[in-house]
Amino acid sequence: MSQRRKFIKQSLLGSALLIPGLSTLEAQATPVKKAAGTKPIILSTWNHGIPANADAWAKLKETGSLLDAVEAGVRNTELDLENLSVGLQGLPDREGITTLDASIMLGDGSCGSVAFVRQVKHPISLARAVMEKTPHVMLAGEGARQFAIAQGFPMEKEKLSPKAQVEYDKWKVTSQYKPIINVENHDTIGMIGLDASGKLAGSCTTSGLAYKMHGRIGDSPIIGAGLFVDDEVGAATATGLGESIIRICGSFLIVELMRQGRSPQAACEEAVRRLVAKNKNIKDIQAGFLAINKDGEVGAYAVHPGFNYAQATESGNVLIDAASHFKA
């Protein structure tokens, strides 16, 4: 966690950091600013979006499928043992059990999600299976696990990762539930992309809030809250305290605001204003939104400073400090 805090502080020193050495992306000599009207483009929340974008971009080049790309990208994060907020290595609930949520969506309205899933290494792939192989949109809990087994997903041993076990043991000393903004608890990865033909897709995956009540589900698997995609307009994804995002149907709201003519940036800013208005104790709540319209214009905005996102284009793969945030 201390390394994560240090990284965020460093990222705030500049608006963008170029990450060189990615074989699938062309490096540039100078930092890249936000793209305006760029296709294709892949965006994802937080600094772990850099390796996620790299995998997504490689998959897009390999198969030409944006759906394959947004799945492959966040699968990278689901396997990242250094990340304690995504995947089975994530911090557990109050009972010491790690449960996962994920969703995936195409711009034609096709979507799938899973919630309160245990023992599945790649919930994003399970969400895709729900979309493609069932008449449903969401499966949860034991039903999602049974479906995973039927689809041939291996069931992983239910054991906390070493880092998660250490943190959970520390938490049990006081058993105090008080999330810290911008640190691990809110580091869901949401990814949205636009291909060269103008088609859109998105994905979102998380282990949810650390030390949550057993059975709690956040915004990530809820279509319209943590993720929403529409080929006619654009796409949006969210990160942060899920309850605050659910209350305003954040991602759907942003897409609808863009449908009405607002830019992605203006739409993200309006969503944050509404979130602030609907939630108490906003000083303890972080939430950020990331959006793209069908023309490839990008927007990002958060309640508090510290939110960053990764952006991959033909020109490179960079980390951008969203910088702009709500000011009361």
Label the structural class: alpha+beta
Helix content: 25-40%
- Count of strand segments: 13
Integer tally of domains: 1
Terminal CA distance reads 29 Å
- Specify the biggest β-sheet: 9 strands, mixed
The residue ranges in which pLDDT falls below 50 over 5 or more consecutive positions are 1-35
Q: Supply the CATH class.
A: Alpha Beta
Which range does the strand content fall in? Answer: 15-25%
* Rg computed from alpha carbons, rounded to a whole number of angstroms: 18 Å
What is the topology, as strand order, of the major beta sheet? Answer: 1-13-12-2-6-7-3-4-5
CATH fold descriptor: Glutamine Phosphoribosylpyrophosphate, subunit 1, domain 1
Give the helices and strands as they follow along the chain: HEEHHEEHEHHEEEEHHHEEEE
Q: What gross morphology would you assign?
A: globular
CATH architecture: 4-Layer Sandwich
Q: How many helical elements? A: 9
Mean pLDDT: 87
What's the name of the CATH homologous superfamily?
(Glycosyl)asparaginase
Give the tags.
single chain, 328 residues, alpha+beta, Glutamine Phosphoribosylpyrophosphate, subunit 1, domain 1, nine-stranded mixed β-sheet, four-stranded antiparallel β-sheet, 22% strand
Question: If you had to describe this structure to a student in words, what would you say it looks like?
Answer:
This protein has 328 residues and is an alpha+beta fold. The chain has a single domain, classed as Glutamine Phosphoribosylpyrophosphate, subunit 1, domain 1 (4-Layer Sandwich). Helices cover 31% and strands 22% of the residues. Helix 4 (123-133) links the parallel strand 4 and strand 5 (138-140). The longest helix is centred in the first third of the chain and has 15 residues, at 49-63.
